[in-house]
C-alpha cells in the first residue's frame, strides 16, 4: 500500500510560501521523501510505520486512531506539574523538512539530455550557497519542532510504547525509555538517529 501524504499545501501557509506554479508531482515527491526518510529516521521504523497506519489513504487521520496520535500529529496543549506546555504537532516538522527538500531542487529539472537549471530574461538563479543556507535553516526549524513533539511524547511516554520500545537502549539514567536528544544548530539528525538506535558511529 502506498504511503499516504500527511500534509497539504494549506499547511504551509504562514510558514513557507510555496511557488504558485509548483507542480503537484514535485510537491508530492518531496513530501513523500520528507516522510519516508527524514521523519522515519527520527521516529524509528517501528513507530513510524505504526504512526502511518493511523491515516487513511487520502492523508486524513482515521476516526478510530488513538487520541494521543491525533494530538501528536495536529498539536495540542498539555500540563506537567501545573505548567502549561504547547505541542506543535508533526505537521510543522513535515512542512520544514519538505521545504528544505524543495529549496534544494528549486529552479532545476531533468531533461532528456542533462540536468538543467531554469532561467529566463527576468531572473537569475540563486547561488548554491544561498540555497544550502536556506535548506539548512529549514532543517533546523524542523528539528526544533520535532524536539517539542519529543518532549510531548516523553511527558506521555505510556501512550507511545512503540516509540520507546524501538530504541532498546540500556541507559541506566533513563531505564531504557528515553532516547538521547541532541542540540539544535547543526541539524545533525543523522547523529540523533544513531544515538536513538544505540548504534556507535565509527
SSE diagram, text form:
Layout: H1 24-43, H2 45-52, H3 67-74, E1 76-80, E2 83-87, H4 90-105, E3 108-110, E4 115-117, H5 128-155, H6 161-166, H7 189-196
Antiparallel strand pairs: 1-2, 3-4
Which keywords apply here?
202 residues, two-stranded antiparallel sheet, two-stranded antiparallel ribbon
Could you explain the architecture of this structure?
By secondary structure, the chain is mainly alpha-helical. The protein has one domain (9-196). Helices cover 47% and strands 8% of the residues. It is built from 7 helices and 4 strands, in the order H-H-H-E-E-H-E-E-H-H-H. A two-stranded antiparallel sheet has the order 1-2. Strand 1 and strand 2 (83-87) form a beta hairpin. Helix 1 crosses helix 4 and helix 4 (90-105) runs antiparallel to helix 5. The longest helix has 28 residues, at 128-155. It starts with 23 loop residues before the first helix and ends in a 6-residue tail after the last helix. Residues 109-116 and 166-187 have low confidence and may be disordered.
Q: What percent strand?
A: 5-15%
Q: Report the principal-axis shape.
A: globular
Sheet having the most strands:
2 strands, antiparallel
Helical residue percent?
40-55%
Radius of gyration: 18 Å
Number of β-strand runs: 4
**What's the pLDDT, averaged over the residues?**
81
> How are the strands ordered across the major sheet?
1-2
Low-confidence stretches are 109-116, 166-187
- How many structural domains are formed by the residues? 1
Amino acid at each position: 500500500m502506498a504511503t499516504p501524504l500527511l500534509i497539504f499545501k494549506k499547511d504551509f501557509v504562514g510558514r513557507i510560501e510555496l511557488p504558485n506554479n509548483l507542480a503537484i508531482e514535485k510537491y508530492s515527491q518531496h513530501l513523500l521523501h520528507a516522510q519516508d526518510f527524514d521523519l522515519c529516521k527520527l521516529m524509528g521504523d517501528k513507530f513510524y510505520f505504526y504512526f502511518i497506519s493511523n491515516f487513511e489513504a487520502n492523508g486524513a487521520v482515521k476516526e478510530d486512531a488513538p487520541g494521543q496520535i491525533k494530538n501528536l500529529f495536529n498539536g495540542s496543549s498539555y500540563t506537567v506539574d501545573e505548567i502549561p506546555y504547547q505541542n506543535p504537532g508533526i505537521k510543522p516538522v513535515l512542512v520544514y523538512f519538505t521545504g528544505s527538500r524543495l529549496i534544494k531542487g528549486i529552479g532545476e529539472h531533468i531533461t532528456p539530455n542533462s540536468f538543467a537549471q531554469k532561467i529566463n530574461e527576468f531572473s537569475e538563479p540563486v547561488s548554491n550557497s544561498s540555497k544550502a543556507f536556506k535548506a539548512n535553516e529549514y532543517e533546523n526549524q524542523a528539528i526544533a519542532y520535532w524536539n517539542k513533539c519529543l518532549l510531548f511524547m516523553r511527558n506521555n511516554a505510556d501512550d507511545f510504547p512503540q516509540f520507546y520500545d524501538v530504541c532498546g537502549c540500556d541507559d541506566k539514567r533513563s531505564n531504557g525509555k528515553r532516547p538521547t536528544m541532541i542540540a539544535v544548530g547543526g541539524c545533525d539528525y543523522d547523529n540523533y538517529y544513531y544515538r536513538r538506535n544505540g548504534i556507535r558511529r565509527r
